[in-house]
Amino acid sequence: MSTAFIQKNIRLSLEFDTYASRNPGVYDKIPNGSWVVLTVRGDEKFNRESRSTVGIAQINKAKVIEARKEGSRWKIAKFVTA
Prior knowledge:
By secondary structure, this protein is an alpha+beta fold. The protein has one domain. Helix content is about 45%, strand content about 25%. The protein has helices at about 5-20, 25-30, 45-50, 55-60; strands at about 35-40, 65-70, 75-80. The protein has a 3-stranded mixed beta sheet. β2 (about 65-70) and β3 form a beta hairpin. The longest helix has 20 residues, at about 5-20. The chain is globular and about 30 Å long.
């Protein structure tokens, strides 16, 4: 993992937390105990690296949710492997 990926992931985590706290319905879409993978529309390099981090969760049969940033909004969906 590169420093740039880690920094972007931290920034996106903060943005997602802020968005979710202002839009409480978002929490209803995330099952308890699930992993959240952050992705960004149009940034396939970041998205590939972010999606690659879910291997441990899948081994442990944990639920994985994708939170995709699309402009100023976030789309929440069940994580689907390619």
